[in-house]
Specification:
Blueprint lengths: L2 E7 L3 E9 L5 H4 L14 E10 L9 E10 L4 E5 L6 E4 L21 H4 L5 E8 L8 E3 L4 E2 L3 E4 L4 E4 L5 H10 L9 E4 L8 H24 L4 E4 L4 H9 L4 E6 L2 H14 L7 E3 L6 H4 L2 H7 L4 E3 L5 E6 L3 E7 L12 H23 L3 E6 L6 H15 L6 E3 L7 E6 L6 H5 L15 H18 L5 E5 L2 H22 L2 E5 L10 E6 L1 H8 L7 E9 L7 E5 L2 E6 L8 E9 L3 E6 L17 H5 L10 H6 L1 H14 L13 H6 L21 H4 L3
Parallel strand pairs: 1-14, 6-8, 11-12, 14-15, 18-19, 22-23, 27-29
Antiparallel strand pairs: 1-2, 2-3, 4-5, 4-7, 4-13, 5-6, 7-8, 9-10, 10-12, 16-17, 17-18, 19-21, 20-21, 22-24, 25-26, 25-28, 26-27, 28-29
Length: 685
């Protein structure tokens, strides 16, 4: 299978993408070094693996440390080792290698105990085999290895092994090439990347690895524990070293410095591959040209669509990852399609795509795949065959169990480093990664209990100013403020609310307490006569001439603004209530717009009989059953209590009910640009 490697280097991170041929590669990517004009680079390839490494957050897998035993736990058959990081590393008894000492094996009674092999304060040389993940520290081993291009040298090992991922014929050839190879004191493992390598390649690399080990021993003597004595290569060199072989067409790098490093590395280890390392010099970013950016965005999605219309749902948990297979819109092909055939087709596509997602997202640990139930055993066998065949392309060690009668497949995949999803994301600060949060109603009920406690704990205060999210405020002020009135009647206190949408839903704070007049003065967002720049967001619920603006959940009903919806306009506040206010529209000169033209393309309005404006007091209008129903509907929709008087004749009764005071107020509290105006100018005629 033909492959390509893309390396993109930015100031903040290094990204590497492995591309594999999807079916028959396009001619432009196989017959020429550069794609033809009008052909997208990488056509006929799919993104198989992604790797990210951030500055200051490099993987430490492969690093060698001089550590100090911090604690030995016989019950766990393990020791915690201080290697100079935030968390101690974990060393299991199976990973202990001491000269002339055979460590006890798990499950066997007898033998020497771990407490006899290691003591607190003892200094040892360890290598990281797994990065720190979540709450766990790094996994350590005392069996140090040094990775090269074609082989991995193990100073404390013995003998020569060959990777089982190679074909039997190639494995036999490599054994002949490396027979009687002088390994010195130690052993080695021939890597998969050694496919096609000659004896001289191994001899040259073995000399390099022996010299590297000598340098390592010297650093061990000079380093004081805890400390690092050897650092693994960076991401691009590490990935290319491990996977780049004759099967790869080319490695494309978009950074000149990194290109020189890779060329220098291959010049020493595999001169025949130097010409396949290319520098990307096109104006279009490398990952964008090859469609890798889209794949990176898709990694964060739970849903993965299948070709025939089915889809996967991938859910992550602490203990395991669950992948659910759904048929979706796929209903089979042809009128005579049978249910079993439709299910099998979906499962076959899912088996291949599951492996693609495991590699792309680098999912490790326990994995449970919930295939759609199949009645026939041969169909289940076919799905497992596709799954195992796809796993052959995965370089990470996996173990797969048989499909169960419930259609479940259990498997494990080695978890070495954090995947792309973990690097790119963080747990939600609101739900803490749970995926669900408490509803506004639940939070409001909890806050109501807390407000009752506050009222009891502060008997001298008459009123409180509470800072919460407006969506939670709406639970108190909705439905004509029934919840708020009940709370105030029960506690004998008065409560006012403030806050913005930027607050967390569970934010709760008492910002001020005192007399009712003091709290009301501080709580009111506006005062009569204030001139405010607002966004007019929607028409009024039941007055065709008016419109509504909202500021942090506070509603401003604007007279004569029906034609200004969607615009920013200056308004003059006329009446102020606890949850709502009325205002008049201003023109560019700052004068009140006495009448706004009605829309011309509104046949229904032309047929409407002329309304009688300001003929009855607002209190009487409120008593009309139809009006009351409309007001309640509007309060439920906006989740606030809206009490608006007729725009041309403010009602004293309505103002008193809403807490609107007719005396002059201090101006310029908050909002947009405001100008002080005489009350007579702001009052309707």
């Amino acid at each position: 299978m033909k492959k390509q490697v893309l390396v993109s280097v930015d100031r903040a991170e290094t990204r590497v993408a492995l591309l594999e041929a999807a079916g028959k590669p396009a001619a432009s990517t196989t017959n020429s070094r550069r794609p033809r004009a009008g052909t997208r680079p990488g056509a006929g390839y799919r993104i198989a693996e992604l790797y990210l490494e951030r500055r200051g957050a490099r993987s430490i897998v492969g690093n060698i440390y001089k550590g100090k035993i911090d604690n030995v736990l016989p019950g766990l058959e393990a020791a915690f080792v201080d290697i100079g990081l935030e968390k101690n590393g974990f060393l299991h008894v199976d990973e202990i290698v001491l000269p002339g000492v055979e460590a006890p094996k798990r499950g066997r009674s007898g033998g020497r105990k771990i407490s006899e092999l290691l003591k607190p304060g003892q200094e040892i040389i360890v290598q990281v085999v797994k990065d720190p993940l979540k709450t766990k520290g790094a996994r350590l081993s005392m069996e140090v290895t040094i990775a090269g291009r074609y082989m991995v040298y193990a100073p404390s090992g013995e003998g020569l092994g060959v990777s089982r991922r190679l074909e039997d014929r190639e494995r036999e050839r490599l054994r002949k090439e490396t027979s009687k190879l002088d390994l010195g004191h130690g052993g080695a493992i021939i890597r998969t990347a050694a496919h096609g390598a000659k004896r001289e390649d191994f001899e040259r690399e073995l000399l390099y690895l022996h010299k590297l080990y000598e340098v390592l021993l010297k650093r061990v003597e000079e380093t004081q524990a805890p400390g690092m004595v050897f650092q693994e290569a960076d991401l691009s060199v590490r990935v290319v070293r491990d996977i780049f072989s004759e099967h790869f067409e080319r490695a494309i790098v978009d950074d000149e410095l990194q290109h020189r490093r890779l060329v220098s590395f291959f010049s020493r280890t595999a001169p025949e591959l130097v010409e396949r390392v290319e520098l990307w010099q096109e104006p279009t970013p490398l990952f964008e040209a090859y469609g890798v950016e889209e794949a990176i965005e898709g990694v964060l999605s739970r849903r993965v669509d299948l070709p025939s219309g089915g889809y996967l749902m991938i859910d992550y948990a602490e203990a395991l990852t669950v992948i659910d297979v759904n048929s979706g819109s796929f209903i089979g092909r042809g009128k005579g399609a049978a249910l079993e055939d439709t299910i099998t087709k979906t499962n076959l596509e899912a088996a291949e795509e599951v492996v693609n997602q495991l590699r792309l997202r680098d999912i490790g640990g326990i994995i449970v795949i919930d295939f759609i139930d199949m009645a026939r055993a041969r169909n289940r066998d076919a799905v497992m065959k596709v799954l195992r065949k796809s796993l052959d392309e995965d370089r990470t060690k996996t173990f797969t169990a048989e499909i169960s009668r419930l259609g479940l497949v259990e498997m494990t995949r080695q978890n070495v480093t954090e995947g792309v999803r973990e690097i790119m994301s963080r747990p939600c600060p609101v739900c803490d990664g749970e995926g669900v949060i408490r509803s506004e109603e639940t939070i409001a009920i909890d806050f109501e209990r807390r407000l009752r406690e506050v009222a009891v704990e502060n008997p001298e205060a008459e009123a409180f100013l509470v800072q919460i999210n407006p969506r939670v405020t709406a639970q108190f002020t909705g439905q004509s403020s029934r919840a708020l009135h009940a709370l105030e009647a029960h506690s004998g206190k008065s409560f006012h609310f403030e806050g913005s949408e930027g607050l967390a839903l569970n934010h709760f704070a008492i910002t001020f307490q005192g007399t009712r007049e003091e709290v009301e003065e501080r709580a009111l967002p506006f005062h009569e006569g204030d001139e405010v720049l607002v966004d007019i967001v929607e028409p009024h619920m039941y007055d065709v001439d008016d419109a509504v603006a909202k500021i942090d959940g506070y509603i401003i009903s604007i007279s004569g603004a029906a034609t200004q919806v969607g615009e920013k306009r200056m308004v003059r506040i006329e009446q102020v209530g606890r949850t709502a206010a009325t205002a008049l529209l201003l023109d560019e000169s700052g004068e009140v717009v006495r009448s706004a033209p009605r829309p011309t393309a509104a046949p229904a309005r032309r047929k409407r009989a002329p309304r009688s404006r300001a003929k009855a007091p607002a209190a009487k209008v409120k008593e009309t059953p139809e009006r009351e129903a409309v007001v309640v509907a509007m309060a439920e929709r906006d989740a606030v209590a809206v009490a608006v008087a007729e725009p041309d004749e403010p009602s004293a009764a309505k103002g008193e009910e809403d807490g609107v005071s007719s005396k002059p107020r201090r101006r310029g509290r908050r909002g947009g640009r405001r100008r002080s105006a005489a009350k007579a100018d702001a009052s309707p005629e």
